[in-house]
Q: What sequence folds into this?
C-alpha cells in the first residue's frame, strides 16, 4: 500500500491513506515529499508547489482555490484553500 | 434478487408491515409517543408533523408516508383544533385499503383516556397485520434511496462509490433508485447533466443545483458541518465530489421532488431544495429530514454512508449503515452494517463492498433487521417547506 495517492493523475493534491507524521517523507510519483505536519487519514497534502489563486483539483475536479502559496508536501485544508462557491463553516 | 413483501391494494409491495402512529401537531406528540411506548419493539412507529399552520408539502408528505408500501395501518392522533387537514388524511389512508383510526384528544377526554383508546386500537390492529401473508417480491418492485451523513474525507473514497456500485447493480436489474441533496451536488452540475437521459433533463439538473447554491448562499451556510472539515473535507465542492459518487455510473432518468415516486425503473435525483423565495429556513435541517423525503418518494430501504459515524435509523423504512472510515468502524461497530473502510486498508475492493451492500439489501428485503432497527432507532422529523410542481422536462418518457 502506498502512503498517499492522487485520485487522478492531473491532481495537485494527494490523499493520505494512513496517518502521516510531521517531518515524515512519503513517495508520490517516484518523488519524495516531506509532510509539514501530522495528517489524518483521508486528509490532503500538496502533490506539487501550488501558487496563490490556483485551482485545487482532486479526481481532476476543482475543489477550491489556494489562498496562499502551498509547497509540495504541505497540508492542504481550510487554512490555505477556500471554496469557489460557499464559505466553509468550522468551529474554532 | 428475490424479496419477500406485503401486497397493498394499489399493487405495490412493502418489505415491512409497520403500524404507524402519527401526531398531527406537537400538542399531540406526547400522547402519540405514550401510545407507542408499550409496542416499540413490535413494529409500531411514531411519526408526525409539529406545526399548527397548514402546509401543502406537509400534507403531501404525511399522505405519502401513511400510505407507504411498508405501512400496514395508521392511527392518527389529533389535539382537535390544529390546522392539519386530518379528515383528508384519514380519507386518503382509508381509500388505500389500510385500517385507520383518528383520535382527537379534546374529544376523547384528554391525555389518559386518549392513550388508553390508542393502545386499545393498536392492540386490536396488530394481529391483523401479523396475519397478513408475505408474498414474493421482485427487485423491479423495489425502490432504494441513498444519503450520506457525518461525512469525512473517507466517505467519497470508500462507502459512497461502493454504494454507487450497488446502485448500478440495482438499476441493471430494474429497481428504482434515488439519490438526493442538491446542496451537496454543488460543483457537480456539469458532470450530472452529461449523464442525463435527455438534453432538457440535463438543463433541469443544472437548474436544481443552481437553485440550491442560491438558496444556501441566502442562508449564509453551505450544507457542510464543522465535523466535515475535521474529517478532512475542505470545501462544499470537495464534499459534493464524494456525495456525488453515491449515484454510481448509470444514466440519470429524471428528477423527482419530495412525495413524487419515480415512475419507472432507473436512477433519479430527488430535488430537496424548496422552490421560490427562502421561506422556512434551511432546506433540510438534518439527515432524517432527507430520509423522510426519500421514504415519501417510495424508498423501501435507505443506504446511509457515514465517515464520522452517524447512528440514526428511521421510522417506516430500514436504514443500512455503510461505514466509510476504518477507525470509525472499529469504534462504532455495533451501529454499522457494512465496513467499507476495508477498501482504504487494501482488504477489499470497491466491487466487493458494492456486491456486499447489494446482498445485504436482498437480506433486509427478506426481513433481516439492520443494526439501527435492532437498536430501536426510529428517528423522524418533518418541517415546513414549499415546492412548485415538477417541470415538464424532469421526467422524460
A:
Amino acid at each position: 500500500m502506498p502512503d498517499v495517492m492522487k485520485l487522478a493523475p492531473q491532481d495537485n493534491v494527494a490523499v493520505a491513506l494512513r496517518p502521516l507524521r510531521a517531518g515524515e517523507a512519503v513517495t508520490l510519483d517516484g518523488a519524495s515529499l516531506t509532510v509539514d505536519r501530522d495528517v489524518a487519514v483521508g486528509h490532503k497534502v500538496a502533490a506539487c508547489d501550488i501558487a496563490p489563486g490556483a485551482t485545487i483539483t482532486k479526481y481532476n475536479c476543482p475543489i477550491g482555490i489556494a489562498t496562499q502559496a502551498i509547497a509540495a508536501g504541505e497540508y492542504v485544508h481550510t487554512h490555505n484553500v477556500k471554496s469557489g462557491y460557499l464559505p466553509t463553516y468550522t468551529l474554532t | 434478487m428475490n424479496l419477500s413483501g406485503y401486497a397493498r391494494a394499489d399493487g405495490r409491495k412493502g418489505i415491512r408491515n409497520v403500524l404507524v402512529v402519527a401526531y398531527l401537531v406537537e400538542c399531540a406528540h406526547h400522547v402519540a409517543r405514550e401510545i407507542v411506548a408499550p409496542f416499540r419493539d413490535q413494529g409500531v412507529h411514531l411519526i408526525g408533523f409539529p406545526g399548527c399552520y397548514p402546509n401543502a408539502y406537509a400534507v403531501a408528505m404525511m399522505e405519502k408516508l401513511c400510505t407507504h408500501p411498508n405501512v400496514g395501518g395508521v392511527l392518527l392522533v389529533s389535539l382537535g383544533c390544529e390546522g392539519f387537514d386530518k379528515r383528508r388524511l384519514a380519507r386518503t389512508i382509508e381509500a388505500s385499503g389500510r385500517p385507520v383510526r383518528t383520535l382527537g384528544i379534546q374529544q376523547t377526554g384528554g391525555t389518559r383516556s386518549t392513550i388508553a383508546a390508542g393502545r386499545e386500537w393498536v392492540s386490536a390492529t396488530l394481529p391483523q397485520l401479523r396475519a397478513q401473508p408475505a408474498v414474493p417480491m421482485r427487485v423491479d418492485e423495489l425502490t432504494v434511496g441513498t444519503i450520506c451523513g457525518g461525512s469525512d474525507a473517507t466517505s467519497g473514497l470508500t462507502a459512497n462509490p461502493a454504494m454507487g456500485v450497488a446502485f448500478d447493480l440495482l438499476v441493471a436489474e430494474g429497481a428504482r433508485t434515488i439519490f438526493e441533496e442538491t446542496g451537496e451536488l454543488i460543483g457537480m452540475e456539469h458532470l450530472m447533466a452529461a449523464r442525463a437521459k435527455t438534453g432538457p433533463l440535463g438543463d433541469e439538473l443544472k437548474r436544481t443545483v443552481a437553485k440550491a447554491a442560491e438558496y444556501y448562499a441566502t442562508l449564509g451556510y453551505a450544507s457542510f458541518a464543522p465535523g466535515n472539515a475535521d474529517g478532512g473535507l475542505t470545501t462544499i465542492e470537495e464534499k459534493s465530489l464524494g456525495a456525488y459518487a453515491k449515484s454510481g455510473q448509470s444514466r440519470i432518468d429524471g428528477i423527482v421532488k419530495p412525495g413524487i415516486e419515480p415512475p419507472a425503473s432507473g436512477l433519479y435525483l430527488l430535488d430537496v431544495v424548496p422552490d421560490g423565495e427562502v421561506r422556512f429556513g434551511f432546506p433540510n435541517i438534518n439527515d432524517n429530514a432527507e430520509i423522510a423525503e426519500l421514504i415519501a418518494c417510495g424508498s423501501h430501504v435507505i443506504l446511509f454512508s457515514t465517515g464520522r459515524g452517524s447512528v440514526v435509523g428511521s421510522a417506516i423504512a430500514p436504514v443500512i449503515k455503510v461505514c466509510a472510515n476504518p477507525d470509525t468502524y472499529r469504534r462504532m461497530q455495533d451501529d454499522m452494517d457494512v465496513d467499507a473502510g476495508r477498501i482504504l486498508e487494501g482488504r477489499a475492493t470497491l466491487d466487493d463492498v458494492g456486491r456486499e451492500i447489494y446482498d445485504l439489501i436482498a437480506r433486509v428485503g427478506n426481513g433481516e433487521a439492520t443494526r439501527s432497527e435492532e437498536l430501536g432507532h426510529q428517528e423522524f422529523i418533518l418541517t415546513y417547506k414549499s415546492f412548485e410542481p415538477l417541470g415538464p422536462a424532469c421526467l422524460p418518457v
